[in-house]
Design goal:
With about 290 residues, the protein is mostly helical. About 55% of the residues lie in helices and about 0% in strands. The chain has a domain of about 140 residues: Serine Threonine Protein Phosphatase 5, Tetratricopeptide repeat. The longest helix is centred in the N-terminal third of the chain and has 19 residues. InterPro entries: TPR-like_helical_dom_sf (IPR011990), TPR_rpt (IPR019734).
Protein backbone atom coordinates (compact mmCIF):
# COMPACT_ATOMS: atom_id res chain seq x y z
CA UNK A 1 0.00 0.00 0.00
CA UNK A 2 1.46 3.40 -0.89
CA UNK A 3 2.48 5.88 1.76
CA UNK A 4 0.13 8.51 0.39
CA UNK A 5 -2.80 6.62 1.91
CA UNK A 6 -1.46 7.61 5.29
CA UNK A 7 -1.11 11.24 4.30
CA UNK A 8 -4.74 11.33 3.18
CA UNK A 9 -5.91 9.87 6.47
CA UNK A 10 -3.70 12.14 8.55
CA UNK A 11 -5.03 15.18 6.73
CA UNK A 12 -8.44 14.10 7.98
CA UNK A 13 -7.29 13.85 11.58
CA UNK A 14 -9.66 15.36 14.12
CA UNK A 15 -6.97 17.52 15.65
CA UNK A 16 -9.20 20.22 17.07
CA UNK A 17 -12.00 18.74 19.16
CA UNK A 18 -12.68 21.86 21.18
CA UNK A 19 -15.86 22.22 23.18
CA UNK A 20 -15.80 25.96 22.53
CA UNK A 21 -18.39 27.39 20.09
CA UNK A 22 -15.56 28.45 17.80
CA UNK A 23 -14.24 24.96 17.15
CA UNK A 24 -16.93 22.38 17.80
CA UNK A 25 -16.21 20.46 14.63
CA UNK A 26 -12.95 19.19 13.17
CA UNK A 27 -11.30 21.73 10.91
CA UNK A 28 -11.66 21.11 7.18
CA UNK A 29 -8.71 20.00 5.11
CA UNK A 30 -6.54 22.70 3.46
CA UNK A 31 -7.57 23.56 -0.06
CA UNK A 32 -4.50 21.98 -1.67
CA UNK A 33 -3.31 19.37 -1.95
CA UNK A 34 -6.35 17.46 -0.71
CA UNK A 35 -5.80 14.09 -2.29
CA UNK A 36 -2.85 12.09 -3.68
CA UNK A 37 -2.24 12.19 -7.40
CA UNK A 38 -2.44 8.45 -7.85
CA UNK A 39 -4.85 5.79 -6.65
CA UNK A 40 -4.01 2.56 -4.88
CA UNK A 41 -6.01 0.36 -7.20
CA UNK A 42 -3.84 -0.45 -10.18
CA UNK A 43 -2.95 -3.15 -12.71
CA UNK A 44 0.56 -2.05 -13.72
CA UNK A 45 3.38 -4.54 -13.36
CA UNK A 46 1.12 -7.59 -13.15
CA UNK A 47 2.55 -10.78 -14.58
CA UNK A 48 0.21 -11.82 -17.38
CA UNK A 49 1.30 -15.42 -16.99
CA UNK A 50 0.33 -15.50 -13.31
CA UNK A 51 -2.81 -17.30 -12.08
CA UNK A 52 -4.27 -13.90 -11.20
CA UNK A 53 -4.33 -13.00 -14.89
CA UNK A 54 -6.46 -16.06 -15.63
CA UNK A 55 -9.19 -15.17 -13.11
CA UNK A 56 -12.73 -15.41 -14.53
CA UNK A 57 -14.10 -12.23 -16.09
CA UNK A 58 -16.92 -12.10 -13.54
CA UNK A 59 -14.19 -11.36 -10.97
CA UNK A 60 -12.47 -8.58 -12.90
CA UNK A 61 -12.27 -6.40 -9.76
CA UNK A 62 -9.71 -8.92 -8.46
CA UNK A 63 -7.33 -7.85 -11.24
CA UNK A 64 -7.35 -4.32 -9.82
CA UNK A 65 -5.72 -5.55 -6.62
CA UNK A 66 -1.89 -5.72 -6.69
CA UNK A 67 -0.75 -9.26 -7.35
CA UNK A 68 1.11 -9.69 -4.08
CA UNK A 69 -1.91 -8.57 -2.06
CA UNK A 70 -4.27 -10.82 -4.01
CA UNK A 71 -1.90 -13.75 -3.50
CA UNK A 72 -1.70 -13.05 0.24
CA UNK A 73 -5.50 -13.04 0.50
CA UNK A 74 -5.74 -16.35 -1.35
CA UNK A 75 -3.10 -17.92 0.89
CA UNK A 76 -4.81 -16.69 4.04
CA UNK A 77 -8.11 -18.16 2.84
CA UNK A 78 -6.56 -21.45 1.74
CA UNK A 79 -9.29 -23.46 3.46
CA UNK A 80 -12.00 -21.71 1.42
CA UNK A 81 -13.17 -22.76 -2.03
CA UNK A 82 -11.47 -21.30 -5.08
CA UNK A 83 -14.65 -19.36 -5.83
CA UNK A 84 -14.70 -17.89 -2.32
CA UNK A 85 -11.05 -16.88 -2.50
CA UNK A 86 -11.70 -14.95 -5.70
CA UNK A 87 -14.68 -13.26 -4.10
CA UNK A 88 -12.47 -12.14 -1.20
CA UNK A 89 -9.95 -10.63 -3.60
CA UNK A 90 -12.81 -8.93 -5.40
CA UNK A 91 -14.07 -7.61 -2.07
CA UNK A 92 -10.65 -6.08 -1.40
CA UNK A 93 -10.75 -4.33 -4.76
CA UNK A 94 -14.20 -2.91 -4.09
CA UNK A 95 -13.23 -1.75 -0.60
CA UNK A 96 -10.13 -0.01 -1.94
CA UNK A 97 -12.14 1.65 -4.69
CA UNK A 98 -14.70 2.88 -2.16
CA UNK A 99 -11.88 4.38 -0.10
CA UNK A 100 -10.31 6.22 -3.02
CA UNK A 101 -13.75 7.60 -3.87
CA UNK A 102 -14.15 8.86 -0.27
CA UNK A 103 -16.94 6.41 0.57
CA UNK A 104 -15.26 5.65 3.86
CA UNK A 105 -18.14 3.99 5.69
CA UNK A 106 -18.68 1.59 2.80
CA UNK A 107 -14.95 0.88 2.69
CA UNK A 108 -14.84 0.34 6.46
CA UNK A 109 -17.70 -2.18 6.38
CA UNK A 110 -16.30 -4.11 3.45
CA UNK A 111 -12.68 -4.13 4.60
CA UNK A 112 -13.73 -4.88 8.17
CA UNK A 113 -15.62 -8.00 7.08
CA UNK A 114 -12.67 -9.02 4.94
CA UNK A 115 -10.29 -8.59 7.89
CA UNK A 116 -12.47 -11.01 9.83
CA UNK A 117 -11.80 -13.71 7.23
CA UNK A 118 -8.16 -12.94 6.41
CA UNK A 119 -6.85 -11.20 9.56
CA UNK A 120 -3.19 -11.95 8.80
CA UNK A 121 -3.01 -9.90 5.58
CA UNK A 122 -1.46 -6.55 6.59
CA UNK A 123 -2.81 -4.62 3.60
CA UNK A 124 -6.34 -5.64 4.53
CA UNK A 125 -5.83 -4.47 8.12
CA UNK A 126 -4.29 -1.24 6.81
CA UNK A 127 -7.28 -0.46 4.62
CA UNK A 128 -9.78 -1.49 7.29
CA UNK A 129 -8.04 0.70 9.87
CA UNK A 130 -7.78 3.80 7.70
CA UNK A 131 -11.37 3.50 6.50
CA UNK A 132 -12.63 3.01 10.05
CA UNK A 133 -10.67 6.05 11.17
CA UNK A 134 -12.06 8.24 8.40
CA UNK A 135 -15.54 7.03 9.40
CA UNK A 136 -15.03 8.01 13.04
CA UNK A 137 -14.98 4.39 14.21
CA UNK A 138 -12.17 4.75 16.70
CA UNK A 139 -12.07 1.27 18.26
CA UNK A 140 -11.87 -0.79 15.07
CA UNK A 141 -9.55 1.83 13.60
CA UNK A 142 -7.14 1.43 16.51
CA UNK A 143 -7.40 -2.37 16.44
CA UNK A 144 -6.72 -2.75 12.72
CA UNK A 145 -3.89 -0.22 12.58
CA UNK A 146 -2.17 -1.75 15.60
CA UNK A 147 -2.38 -5.13 13.88
CA UNK A 148 -0.91 -3.64 10.71
CA UNK A 149 1.95 -2.04 12.66
CA UNK A 150 2.69 -5.30 14.46
CA UNK A 151 2.76 -7.30 11.24
CA UNK A 152 4.73 -4.83 9.13
CA UNK A 153 6.87 -3.06 11.73
CA UNK A 154 5.76 0.20 10.11
CA UNK A 155 5.06 3.17 12.40
CA UNK A 156 3.76 5.65 9.81
CA UNK A 157 0.20 5.36 11.14
CA UNK A 158 1.02 5.83 14.83
CA UNK A 159 -0.43 9.40 14.81
CA UNK A 160 -3.69 7.94 13.54
CA UNK A 161 -3.60 5.26 16.22
CA UNK A 162 -3.06 8.06 18.74
CA UNK A 163 -6.07 9.95 17.43
CA UNK A 164 -8.20 6.80 17.63
CA UNK A 165 -7.14 6.30 21.24
CA UNK A 166 -7.87 9.95 21.88
CA UNK A 167 -11.36 9.47 20.48
CA UNK A 168 -11.90 6.51 22.79
CA UNK A 169 -10.61 8.52 25.74
CA UNK A 170 -7.52 6.46 26.48
CA UNK A 171 -5.19 9.23 27.59
CA UNK A 172 -2.31 7.00 28.63
CA UNK A 173 -2.38 5.15 25.34
CA UNK A 174 -2.03 8.44 23.47
CA UNK A 175 1.10 9.34 25.45
CA UNK A 176 2.54 5.84 25.18
CA UNK A 177 2.10 5.77 21.43
CA UNK A 178 3.75 9.17 21.09
CA UNK A 179 6.81 7.93 22.94
CA UNK A 180 6.86 4.92 20.63
CA UNK A 181 6.63 7.26 17.65
CA UNK A 182 9.63 9.26 18.83
CA UNK A 183 11.68 6.08 19.07
CA UNK A 184 10.79 5.22 15.47
CA UNK A 185 12.71 8.25 14.11
CA UNK A 186 9.82 9.13 11.77
CA UNK A 187 9.71 11.76 9.06
CA UNK A 188 9.14 15.39 10.17
CA UNK A 189 5.57 15.26 8.83
CA UNK A 190 4.65 12.15 10.80
CA UNK A 191 6.29 13.39 13.99
CA UNK A 192 4.51 16.74 13.67
CA UNK A 193 1.18 14.97 13.32
CA UNK A 194 1.92 13.00 16.47
CA UNK A 195 2.61 16.22 18.38
CA UNK A 196 -0.61 17.76 17.13
CA UNK A 197 -2.65 14.80 18.31
CA UNK A 198 -0.89 14.81 21.69
CA UNK A 199 -1.53 18.55 21.99
CA UNK A 200 -5.18 17.93 21.19
CA UNK A 201 -5.34 15.29 23.91
CA UNK A 202 -3.89 17.75 26.43
CA UNK A 203 -6.36 20.41 25.34
CA UNK A 204 -9.25 17.96 25.72
CA UNK A 205 -8.37 17.82 29.42
CA UNK A 206 -8.11 21.58 29.79
CA UNK A 207 -4.31 21.61 29.75
CA UNK A 208 -4.06 24.39 27.19
CA UNK A 209 -0.78 25.74 28.55
CA UNK A 210 0.91 22.35 28.25
CA UNK A 211 -0.48 21.87 24.76
CA UNK A 212 0.85 25.26 23.67
CA UNK A 213 4.25 24.62 25.25
CA UNK A 214 4.52 21.23 23.52
CA UNK A 215 4.09 22.83 20.11
CA UNK A 216 5.97 26.07 20.76
CA UNK A 217 9.01 24.27 22.15
CA UNK A 218 9.29 22.35 18.89
CA UNK A 219 9.14 25.41 16.64
CA UNK A 220 5.54 24.99 15.52
CA UNK A 221 4.91 28.75 15.32
CA UNK A 222 8.10 29.61 13.44
CA UNK A 223 7.42 31.59 10.23
CA UNK A 224 8.40 29.81 7.02
CA UNK A 225 9.32 31.28 3.67
CA UNK A 226 7.70 28.39 1.79
CA UNK A 227 5.41 26.69 4.32
CA UNK A 228 4.16 23.19 3.68
CA UNK A 229 0.91 21.64 4.79
CA UNK A 230 2.53 20.54 8.04
CA UNK A 231 3.32 24.15 8.94
CA UNK A 232 -0.20 25.36 8.12
CA UNK A 233 -1.70 22.71 10.37
CA UNK A 234 0.64 23.59 13.22
CA UNK A 235 -0.10 27.31 12.91
CA UNK A 236 -3.82 26.69 12.82
CA UNK A 237 -3.88 24.38 15.83
CA UNK A 238 -1.66 26.75 17.82
CA UNK A 239 -3.91 29.66 16.85
CA UNK A 240 -6.92 27.72 18.09
CA UNK A 241 -5.18 26.89 21.37
CA UNK A 242 -4.19 30.52 21.95
CA UNK A 243 -7.71 31.68 21.12
CA UNK A 244 -9.19 29.23 23.62
CA UNK A 245 -6.69 30.29 26.26
CA UNK A 246 -7.66 33.95 25.86
CA UNK A 247 -4.55 35.17 24.03
CA UNK A 248 -6.41 36.66 21.08
CA UNK A 249 -3.52 38.76 19.71
CA UNK A 250 -1.29 35.69 19.42
CA UNK A 251 -4.12 33.69 17.87
CA UNK A 252 -4.66 36.44 15.32
CA UNK A 253 -1.00 36.36 14.29
CA UNK A 254 -1.04 32.60 13.73
CA UNK A 255 -4.37 32.57 11.89
CA UNK A 256 -3.06 35.40 9.69
CA UNK A 257 0.03 33.35 8.85
CA UNK A 258 -2.23 30.53 7.67
CA UNK A 259 -4.46 32.87 5.68
CA UNK A 260 -1.52 34.53 3.95
CA UNK A 261 -0.29 31.14 2.74
CA UNK A 262 -3.69 29.68 1.86
CA UNK A 263 -6.85 31.79 2.40
CA UNK A 264 -8.99 28.69 1.84
CA UNK A 265 -7.25 26.54 4.44
CA UNK A 266 -9.56 25.18 7.12
CA UNK A 267 -12.00 27.83 8.37
CA UNK A 268 -9.23 30.35 9.00
CA UNK A 269 -11.02 33.23 7.25
CA UNK A 270 -14.07 32.94 9.49
CA UNK A 271 -11.87 32.50 12.56
CA UNK A 272 -10.14 35.79 11.79
CA UNK A 273 -13.51 37.48 11.37
CA UNK A 274 -14.67 36.07 14.71
CA UNK A 275 -11.73 37.44 16.68
CA UNK A 276 -11.84 40.77 14.85
CA UNK A 277 -9.09 43.08 13.59
CA UNK A 278 -6.18 44.39 15.61
CA UNK A 279 -7.31 47.18 17.88
CA UNK A 280 -5.35 50.38 17.61
CA UNK A 281 -4.42 52.08 20.89
CA UNK A 282 -6.59 55.03 21.74
CA UNK A 283 -4.97 58.42 21.54
CA UNK A 284 -5.57 60.92 24.28
CA UNK A 285 -7.45 63.97 23.23
CA UNK A 286 -5.42 67.15 23.41
CA UNK A 287 -6.90 69.95 25.46
CA UNK A 288 -7.98 72.85 23.25
CA UNK A 289 -7.65 75.60 25.89
CA UNK A 290 -4.67 76.96 27.74
CA UNK A 291 -4.22 76.38 31.41
CA UNK A 292 -4.67 79.41 33.59
CA UNK A 293 -2.23 80.16 36.31
Amino acid sequence: MPKNWGSVARRGAHLVRSESPKAKNPAPVPSAPQEPQDEWIRVDGQDKSSPEADAPKRHRAAADVPGDVAAAIRRSASDATSYRRERLVEQMGKAAEAYTRHRYEEAARSAGRLAGEVPDVPEVRELAGLAAYRSGRWRPGATHLEAYRTMKGDGQYIPIEMDCQRGIGRVRSVSTLFELLRQESPSPDVLAEGRLVLAGSLADRGKLGEAIELLESNGASKPRRNPGERHLRQWYVLGDLYDRSGDVPRARILFSMVAESDPNAYDVTSRLKDIGPTRKPRQRKKSGGKRTA
